[in-house]
Amino acid sequence: MGQFFTGRSGALYLESTGTTTPTASNQALKLRDWSLETTLELLETTTVDTAVKSYTPGSVSSTGSATVLYYRKDSGETGLQFDQFLSKIMKTASTGVSSSDRVGIILRAGSTAGTGTDIKDDIAFNAYITNASMQVSTGELTSVAIQFTVDGPFTETIDA
């Protein structure tokens, strides 16, 4: 029988560009959610002498989002805090965002219970963080919502 996953088994890793193997020290510590959307642009190939439209595949684009909780880690705790995401778009210098701010992101949809290892459920890609917003509400956990745009093709990470 197959296996189902819940949001509890999901994870997000912020890696070096081109990296397809996640490291525990690069896992977002307190992740609320992530999402990924991929869209295929269709190019119309209909001619004037036809009554039915026809198409051919064009470019694919992907965007996504994630919500990370505003969290300060304890000494000796591995993983990424919220500021690792903010530093890729919120700059303190006037130079702005550059190509060196492109990040590798690995999204994990599921993992084997208790092991933390993926079972062909990781999607890796390079991206730019295009939006970051912080939300502070009375009685709620402070969170940082990010949005990103995929730069180039996906690489699915598969453990044999």
Describe this entry's structure for a reader.
By secondary structure, this protein is mainly beta. It has one domain (9-157): Pnp Oxidase, Chain A (Roll). The protein has one helix and seven strands, in the order βββαββββ. Strands 1, 2, 3, 4, 5, 6 and 7 form a seven-stranded antiparallel sheet that branches. The chain is globular. The two termini are 20 Å apart.
SSE class: mainly beta
Number of helices: 1
Task: Give the percentage of residues in beta strands.
Answer: 35-45%
Instruction: Give the helix proportion (percent range).
Output: under 10%
Largest sheet: 7 strands, antiparallel
- Helix/strand order, N-terminal first: EEEHEEEE
From the 3D structure, determine the CATH topology: Pnp Oxidase, Chain A
Low-confidence segments, given as residue ranges, are: none
What general outline do the C-alpha atoms trace?
A: globular
